C-alpha cells in the first residue's frame, strides 16, 4: 500500500501552467477517493522563486487544496528554489514518519530527471513508482506497480548538472549537533602522519540514529551516498586530507588485507600503504577501528576489527603486510585502538565467548552465563603482543593517563559515538583514518 504520494509541480510545461489548480484538484480528488481507509501523506512539490514580486507557484496552489478533509492533516506544500532542495525536504518528512513506499505523480517529461534525483538522494530502503500527472483518473493509480522505464535516456551532461545541484545544496546545509570533532592519539607522531578518529558531530545526517557525521552508506540504511560524501568532505576539510585520495576497507569481518597499488581483494578488513597523501580508513560502530604507523619505514595501515576479525587475527595480518611489503620492523610499529564497544556492554553467545576465553580468560566476564561479556580490545592487545608488537607501542583503554584515552566505549556515549549494539539496524558509523604527510 502506498504510504506517501509526491505530486511534482516544480517545473510544469507552459501549456499546463494555466490549469495548475485544476490539475492539482483533480489529482487530490482521485487520491482522496481511492484512499478512504488509509489516507497517504501527500506532498506537493513546487518552485519558490527568491525575490520574485509576482505570485509564485506555491501561492497559486492554495485554492486547489481546500475541501480535502481526509487529506487535510496529511497534505503539505513544499516550496523550494531547486528540485534537490524540495526533494530532500520531502525525504526528511518521509523519514520522520518512517515511510518508504512512495508514488510520484509528475509530468512525463520530468520522469527521467526525477529518477536521477531519486537515485542520488534515496537508498534501496525506499520503493518508488511513477505515474503521469495528466492521466490520474481512477483508483487503480494508487496500486503498487513496477516503475515505468522510459525509452529516452538523459544526456551525461544533464546527469552531471543534477549531481552538481545536489552537491551544492548539501554543501549549503548547516552542521548538526555541534562542530566536527576529531580524536587524535599522542602515540602517533604528527610530524609524519595525519590521523584521527571521528565522532558523530559536525555532519548533515539528520535521522536520529545516523545524526550527524555518519560516514557509511548501505542499501539497508536511509542515508544516501551523497550525504556520506558531504560528511566526508567536511571531515577532510577539517582534518586536512584529500577526499579524492581516500580509501576505506571493504568489510568482510575477516582478515584479508589490501596492499595499495596492487590488485585489491573483493573484500578486505585491512589496508596498508607507503604512499604519501593517501588516506586509509577503517569504519567502526562497536567494532574497533585500528590504526598502524611505522615512523621509521614511513608506512601505515588501518583495519576493521569486530569480534570475528579479532579472532581471525586481522590486526596481525595488517602488520604482517606492512612487514612483508615495506620492510617494517615489528618493534617500530605503533598501534592505536579507536572508539569501540567495551566489555561493560558487549555480549556474545557462550559458544563464541569460548574462543575469547581460549585467548585469555580475562577477555571474558561471567563466562558461565548464556551471554558473557567480551573484551575484544584486550584480546586484540594480547594477540598483538604475541605477534611481536611492543606493549608500550599499543594504545587502548588500558592507558594510564585517562586524559589521553581515545578508546571510549561507543555504546556508553550516545552523544559522541554511533553504536550498532545500542541503536539497531539503522545505525551510523564513525571511522579511524591515517595517511603519511607529504
UniProtKB/TrEMBL annotation:
One of its GO terms (cellular component) is endoplasmic reticulum. It holds the Pfam family Cu-oxidase_4. Transmembrane segments: none annotated. InterPro entries: Cu_polyphenol_OxRdtase (IPR003730), Cu_polyphenol_OxRdtase_sf (IPR038371), Cytotoxic_necrot_fac-like_cat (IPR011324). SUPFAM superfamilies: CNF1/YfiH-like putative cysteine hydrolases. The keyword Secreted does not apply. Keywords: Acetylation, Cytoplasm, Endoplasmic reticulum, Hydrolase, Immunity, Inflammatory response, Innate immunity, Metal-binding, Nucleus, Peroxisome, Phosphoprotein, Transferase, Zinc. This is Purine nucleoside phosphorylase LACC1.
